Amino acid sequence: MGVAVASKFLAVGSVVPWAKAGVGAVATQAWANLSYGPNGLDLLEQGLPAEEVVHRLVDTDDNRDHRQFGVVDTHGNAAAWTGNACFKWAGHRSGNGYTCQGNILTSESVVAAIAESYEHSSGPFPERMLAALEAGLRQGGDSRGQQSAAIYVVKEKGSYGGYLDRYIDLRVDDHPTPIGELKKLLEMHRLYFGTTDHSNLTRAAGNVAKEIQETLRTLGYYHGEVDGVFDPATKEAFRKFCSIENFEERWRDDEFVDREILQFMRTRFGKP
Description:
Elements: E1 2-7, E2 17-20, E3 24-30, H1 36-45, H2 50-59, E4 67-73, E5 78-82, E6 91-95, E7 98-102, H3 108-120, H4 125-138, E8 148-154, E9 166-172, H5 178-193, E10 201-203, H6 206-219, H7 232-244, E11 256-258, H8 259-269
Antiparallel strand pairs: 1-8, 2-3, 3-4, 4-5, 6-7, 8-9, 10-11
Helix pairs in contact: 1-2, 3-4, 4-5, 6-7
C-alpha cells in the first residue's frame, strides 16, 4: 500500500504521504495537519477501520474545516474528509482499496479522472498510482500549476537490504513537470533496486563473458585476458562493478548475469 501525490507546493512528499506495511496509509493535505499521519497509523494499528479513524482525527481538531485527508486500512476499506473551508474545487472519491482527494483543482473532473484511471488500470501498484496522477493532470490538475510530486509505497521487508518496510520513497521537490520526472525516478528505482526475473538471466559465457571482460578492462576493474571465460577473476571484477554502480540487488554469485545490467553497461559505457 502507499500514497502518490502531486501539487503546486514545495516538496509535497515531505508532508502528505504516510504508510506502514500491514497497517494502512494516510494522505494529509490542504492546510495539512501532519499529526494525522502518525496518529492515523496508530489508530489503524489498533484495529480501527478507515472510517472510524477519520472520525477520531477530525473530532479532536478545531481546524477540521480546513483539513483534507484520506485513509485506507489494511483490509482495503477507504474513507476521506474534505473540510468545507478548503479552497475550491475541493473534494474526494473513495472506492475499493483506494481514496483520492484534492483541493484548489481546476474542477471535479480531476478527482474523477484519478479514480477512474486507478479503477480501470492493471499492472504494478506504483505504476497504477502514477498513471492516475497523470490522468488527473490531463484534466487540469492543480489550478495553480505544477511544482512537486512524490510516491511512497510500503511492504514487509521491502527496503534496500530488506531491513524496513520502505519499499519506494521517491520525491521530486521542485520541477516544472514533476510527475514526468517522478516516472523517470520510478524507472530508475526498478533498475537499481528491482529483483532479477529468472527469465531475464543469461549465462556469462562465450561472447557475453567477452563483452563483460572488455568493458570491465576498459573501466579498470579487470586486468586479465579477454577469453570468454567467466572465471573467478572476472566474476570478482564484475562483483566490484555491480557494487560501485549500485546493482547489489541484481548481482548473482553464479554463472548467470542479469540482462538489465548488461544493457546498462552497453548504454552507459558503450558496447565494446
